[in-house]
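Input/output pair, single chain:
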Amino acid sequence: MFGYTEAQIASFGLTFGVGAFMLYMLFIIAQLAWESKAGKFGTFVLFLGLAFGMVGFAAKFVIQWVLER
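Output:
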């Protein structure tokens, strides 16, 4: 498709598509904390509990980048 291989399209979608989705999920968590009036500690707990899996996903890209160098 448009001169790109399937692997290139999948890599682009995984990197930027999932990254954009993760940013949108952070917005949703922040909105949830704001509407529930969670306070500082409650907001921290929400982000810790709901966004912890995103840290592992981001760490995977950092580890791959370091190992390739």
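Helices lie at 6-35, 39-68. The longest helix spans residues 6-35.
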